[in-house]
Design a protein that fits this description.
The protein is an all-alpha fold. The chain has one domain. About 80% of the residues lie in helices and about 0% in strands. It contains 7 helices and no strands. The protein starts with a helix and ends with a helix.
């Protein structure tokens, strides 16, 4: 075997190594993308759970319940507390909106967030909070939530505590 034959074999092997390297790189990029989306989903869940846990604070939960009852019995500090809580919820979903637009949040997760936003916007207290917060939010998300405001109509807030009590009674009756 001549030196030029060895060079050709070496060149061929080198070419195969490059092809395998590209395949490996593509697989690594795919895995990194999946890992990134997983981290985004975990962050989304953590933000939402944190907001839900804040609702267990007795002072905030009382303020939220007063807001749901029309807010007439709320003092300025309670109005501000409810606004801050509701605005945090809207900013939480703005992050999801931006992630969905950039394709780092999957469609099913975004669909769930939209359903939650629609549910919130049926509540007059959240509708009022949106009106107060909307000017501090980016145009694309603001337009999106404004369109949801037109789509869903306000209804009387659900009394979650009563509903949960009813469900508990129904479940206990199955025993």
């Amino acid at each position: 075997m001549s030196l030029s034959d060895l060079a050709a074999v070496g060149s061929f092997i080198s070419g195969l190594a490059v092809v395998f390297s590209f395949i490996f790189l593509a697989l690594q990029m795919r895995q990194a993308n999946l890992n990134q989306k997983s981290l985004m989903q975990q962050g989304r869940s953590a933000r939402t759970v944190d907001l839900l846990m804040k609702m267990t604070d007795p002072t905030l939960s009382e303020t939220i319940m007063r807001a749901f009852q029309g807010g007439q019995a709320m003092n300025p500090a309670q109005n501000f507390a409810f606004y801050g809580f509701a605005a945090a919820i809207f900013w939480n979903y703005e992050d999801s909106f931006l992630q969905f637009q950039s394709k780092t949040l999957d469609a099913k997760s975004w669909e769930s967030d939209v359903a939650t936003l629609k549910g919130l916007l049926r509540n007059p207290a959240y509708r009022a909070a949106w009106r107060a917060a909307r000017d501090g939010i980016g145009d694309g998300y603001r337009d999106f939530v404004d369109s949801l405001m037109l789509e869903v109509k306000a209804t009387a807030p659900r009394a979650v505590s009563e509903l949960l009590g009813q469900y508990m009674t129904e479940e206990m009756a199955k025993i």
